[in-house]
Write a structure and sequence with these properties.
- It comes from uncultured Sporomusa sp.
- This is FMN-binding protein.
- With about 120 residues, the protein is an alpha+beta fold.
- It has one domain: Electron Transport, Fmn-binding Protein, Chain A (Pnp Oxidase, Chain A, Roll).
- About 20% of the residues lie in helices and about 45% in strands.
- The chain is built from 3 helices and 7 strands.
- It has helices at about 5-10, 50-60, 95-105, and strands at about 15-20, 25-30, 35-40, 45-50, 65-75, 80-95, 110-120.
- The two termini are about 15 Å apart.
Length: about 120
């Protein structure tokens, strides 16, 4: 489901915006492309330090959306820059082998946001 172009974007730094919504209005948090780790089954693992509102929202509604991109990766028709909107479900991991692997890479994390991707659409 995740294209080669998506992986190219992850090789370049850029902002990732994560949108969650519980019973209230949508909430946005940001992280960096370089913090996203894609598993062999194409789940996305994201180190979380704060993200408490996101965690609360996901207990009420596990759906989320993410937007990410890089101006260094050519998009459609060789335009400079491309981006993706990713939709999926999320949950937090606080233990286990994937948590430990992420803690080794990102010692600051307190939890790991696991995103199960349902769609990843290139936008530019």
């Amino acid at each position: 489901m995740l294209s080669e172009k998506f992986y190219d974007v992850l090789k370049n730094e850029g902002v990732v915006s994560i949108v969650s919504w519980g019973t209230d209005e949508p909430h946005i948090v940001n992280t960096w492309n370089s913090y996203l780790v894609v598993t062999s089954d194409e789940r996305i693992l994201i180190p979380a330090y704060a993200m408490r509102k996101t965690e609360k929202n996901l207990t009420q509604n596990n759906k989320l959306k993410m937007a990410l991109g890089s101006r260094n990766v050519l998009g459609y028709k060789d335009y400079q820059g491309t981006g993706f909107v990713v939709e999926g479900t999320g949950k937090y991991l606080g233990s286990g082998s994937e948590f430990e692997m992420m803690k080794e890479k990102f010692p600051f994390l307190t939890r790991v946001l696991e995103v199960t991707v349902t769609s990843a659409k290139q936008m530019l």
